[in-house]
Specification:
By secondary structure, this protein is mainly α. It has one domain. The protein has six helices and no strands. The longest helix has 12 residues.
Length: about 100
Amino acid sequence: MHLSHIMAAGMGGIRTAGDLVAWMQMAEKMKIDHAKQYVAGKLGVDVIELTNEDVMRPLREDLGIGVVTSLAGSPKGIRAKSRIAELLGIKINSVELFKRDFS
């Protein structure tokens, strides 16, 4: 269901900021426009730039929140998801479980 929603939102998923907007919609029950504004504010970009791969790729790399094609030494998987939770100020169940089990 989550993947379907992310793709249906049409924001490019992890290539841009679609996954981040979808997280806010699901975790905080935000409407899409509010979720976009919230994410843009957290990232320090304009809402229109959330769908621009040329803006979002380097920004996602700098923030360590994951990109489609991983880079050696960059955060992936649970590490990237932890950074997303931290950046957006939300709790992600898998991150919380990881912290509990491995802290």
